[in-house]
Amino acid sequence: MSSPHRIIVGTEYSGAEVLKNLLTLTDGYELIFAQDAADLLKAAHSKRPDLIVCDIVFDESAVFRVIRAVREDQDLQDIPFICTRIQGSRMPESLVSSFELLFKQLSGCTYIDLCALQMTGEVDKFVALVKASIQRADTDNKATKLLH
User: Is 1 among the domain residues?
Assistant: First the structure.
């Protein structure tokens, strides 16, 4: 039996519970929770995750610092990174679109508003994005190994 995919999660406790319920109960992902940006980067180096999921308000909004550190590190830069908003009130669609553009253009990350998906009962879209991100990274890694 293959080991579960590892996902490092940067979020506060209540957000961690949401993700734990979504990802470990249905698909058996191994979640590794980080307390702050330094903890997340240390875990990324030692655990070599298949995916990093980070709340946009993680560690007093240090998410861009974390993304930059991951993208500039040759050992980590190929790890898929999803930024999300796990909890809060409904945001205007224009603000959500701005977040999507900001994260994609500045960092090459995917942004998905998990909070909005929870409100509309569409959390399966988040789970599908997690699966697709890991699968795409697996495919890219296999192709790279074949070329070398």
Answer: no
